[in-house]
Every structure is written in C-alpha cells, then in structure tokens.
Specification:
The chain has 397 residues and is an alpha/beta fold. It has two domains: 2-165 and 334-364, Rossmann fold; 171-330, Glycogen Phosphorylase B (Rossmann fold). Helix content is 34%, strand content 15%. The chain contains 14 helices and 13 strands. It is globular and about 60 Å long.
Length: 397
C-alpha cells in the first residue's frame, strides 16, 4: 500500500524527549516500511524516516516560543499546519490511505477526497469548538487508543481500538535492583498528570521521588505556585526532561513508577515504557489505566491516593520479569503495526467497493475488559486555558 502519515509539527519525529504522538507516528511509519509498504511521512523539518519525508516549518513549533508568544493571532501555527494539510489532500489520489495524527485540523479536508482517511485520537476533544468540529465530522473513520476513549466520546465512528506499542528492544529491563530505592514520576508537570499526588505518596512513605518531564508554558504558574515548594532537591527531586537513554535508566532503576493521573487518560505511554523496563506501575483508576495495567501483575490500580500509598509499600513483591513479559505480550510495536496494517487494508477494500467501513467492535484488536461508564462530569481537561495561567501554546499529548 501507499500510505501517508501526517504528524504534528510540534516535535521532531521521532522526538528527542517528550512526544508520545510523534513516537507512535515514527514507529508506525518504520514498521510499515519494514513490512513492504511505501510510506510518506509529513512532519517537521529535521524529522527522520527510512521512507519518504515531506518536511515543513524550520524547526519544531514548541521551540518557537518567542515567536509564538508574540503571535497573538496564532498565524505561525495555522500557516504551518495548513501548508502540510494542503499538500497532503491535494495529492490524496497518490495514496491508498491517509493516516492523520495531527488532529482536528485535518477533519474538514477529509470530506473533499475519495482516498480513505483515518484519524487517531491522540488528544482531548477540547475546548468546545474542537469538540464541535469532531462531532460535525463524526462520520469519518477514527482510531481510539483505548476502549475507555470510545465510551468517553461515543458519538464518533470508530474503525478500531488499537493500543500503542513501543520498540521493546530499546528498553533494557532491570530485574534486580541495587542502591537507594526511589519512586519515579514521568510526564508533563501539569495538574492532570498528578505530580502533586506523586509527591504526596512519596512523602507519606518517606521515600525518594524523582520527577522527570517537561513544563509547558501553560503549566509554569502551576509549577511555581504548587510544586516548586515541595521539591527540596534531596528527597523530592526534579531532574528535567529526559532523552531516551536517560529515560530508560531513570525507569529501569526505579522501585516503582507512579502514575496518579487526575483525568481520564486515553492511554499513557509512560505506563508501558515503565513495564518494558520491568518496573511495576502504581496508578489511580482513571481513563484507560485498568486496560493497560494487569492489576496485581504489571502494577496496581488504586481508587484513591491513600490506597495507592498503601499499595506502593508492596512494590518489592512484584516479579519484574513478569512485568516485562506483559509488556512484550501486549504492547510491542510489531503488534501495533500489524493491527494498523489490517485496518488500512479494510479501509482500502471498502473504498474500492464504493462503500463505507461500518463500525467494527474493538474486540478484534484489544482484549475484552469490563469498563465503567464515565461520569458526565469526568471530562478531559481544557488545555487551551490553564486554571493557573494564560492560554496554552501546545496541544495535549
């Protein structure tokens, strides 16, 4: 098949550090090429692929902070993204299928081409104008990254649920720990990711906590007003944003990974990255968490910070070899690529027959798990405006 992959322009593909969407786009592109497909990657300049790269913007948009600060009309972002989308959809007949990882920006264009297009829901359907745009285009093909995500936004037409996968060969597990035990938190230092709750767990247990991740501009005031006073540099330590090799060392040497998310997380790559290192994940029951963690095997799912704190005390009872094995069984890049390949072929076949691909249960791609219906108030956070500061510059990952 001839396949177009549209990546966001905010980070390199693959990302230097943070960038879950960009990492998935890279692994998917490379995996499809290895399986004999002709893949064109539309991404920011400086990105890498063994396929055909179409590059845009002079550098990742997240690095254009000074320009974005002065660009009150967001023209820099819009012009860059529209240039990409204009090229992709003007050339749509060149491809058998187009995969949109960019998000809502591509949706209006899809209606004007015959080439099958599928959009992976990497980000939240917020703020409200974005949600309205998705609902207006609910008939298009969507990939959910967890079954919970489908229950959160049931109006959309889902072609499949496909869990993320990672290149497990790049995560060397550690089964026997040495040195001072510590807990690891990896992710954006934002309210919905739960860094404050991770600090509370560590402080209650008297354990060292290392926090790693980026601080977006929208979260700067939150960090300064809430987190900074808790980070003492001795027991609670912020180590910054980590490149891949440092991230692996950070996770594999940790006694446990804390994932106390405060919003309905649609997937959470951090969880499977920790598992790939043999490190059990202790998380709060939000969003996709019960789907990703095999409770009592690869980690522990708790209903409160207090319950999470109690559970973390038993981290040594987890078999780190079994944690790694679960990652291999469920979250390999090869499995992710194969499931996308099958979906693409179904989309292409349906298009050639002149029909629409009808909804197909995600059970063909993911294990069947009982999931609670979300509360009407259990909504994704609005990352366009922070409760602690001004407008957000970056999309949620």
């Amino acid at each position: 098949m001839r396949i177009a992959q549209i990546a966001p322009l905010w980070e390199l593909v693959p990302p230097r550090a943070y960038g879950g969407t960009e990492l998935v786009a890279y692994l998917l592109t490379e995996g499809l090429i290895q399986r004999g497909h002709e893949v064109t990657l539309f991404a920011v300049a400086g990105s890498q692929t063994s396929g055909h790269l179409r590059s845009y913007a002079s550098q990742p948009l997240r690095e254009l902070e000074e320009t974005l600060n002065s660009d009150k009309t967001h023209c820099t972002v819009m012009a860059s993204e529209l240039t990409v989308l204009g090229d992709v959809f003007l050339e749509a007949e060149r491809y058998d299928v187009i995969h949109n990882h960019m998000g809502f920006q591509a949706l209006p264009f899809v209606n004007f081409v015959e080439t099958p297009v599928v959009t992976t829901l990497h980000n939240a359907l917020s703020p409200e104008p974005v949600r309205a745009l998705f609902l207006k285009n609910a008939h298009q093909h969507y990939i959910s990254i967890s079954r919970y995500q489908q229950r959160l936004w049931p109006e959309l037409h889902y072609a499949a649920t496909i869990y993320h996968g990672i290149d497990l060969s790049r995560f060397t597990p550690k089964f026997e720990l040495s040195g001072e035990p510590y807990l690891a938190f990896l992710g954006r230092l934002s309210p919905e990711k739960g860094p404050l709750e991770a600090i509370q767990v560590a402080q209650a247990l008297g354990m060292k906590l290392l926090l790693a991740g980026k601080i977006d501009r929208v979260d700067q005031i939150y960090y300064e007003s809430v987190l900074a006073s808790q980070i003492d540099g001795s027991r609670i330590i912020y180590v910054g944003e980590l490149a891949h090799a440092a991230k692996v060392e950070f996770l594999r040497n940790a006694s446990a990974c804390l994932f106390p998310v405060q919003w309905p997380e649609p997937f959470g790559l951090v969880m499977i990255e920790a598992m790939a290192c043999g490190t059990p994940v202790f998380a709060l029951r939000n969003g996709s968490v019960p789907e990703v963690i095999d409770h009592g095997v690869s980690g522990y799912v708790a209903d409160s910070v207090e319950a999470l704190t109690t559970a973390v005390q038993g981290y040594a009872r987890f078999d780190r070899r079994l944690v790694r094995r679960k990652a291999e069984e469920r979250f390999s890049a090869q499995r992710m690529v194969a499931e996308h390949e099958r979906l693409y072929q179904r989309l292409v076949n349906a298009s050639r027959r002149g029909g629409n691909l009808r909804y197909r249960s995600s059970r063909s791609f993911s294990a069947s798990l009982p999931l609670p219906l979300p509360s009407p108030l259990h909504l994704a956070p609005d990352r366009s405006v922070s409760q602690y500061g001004g407008p957000a510059a970056y999309p949620a990952d």
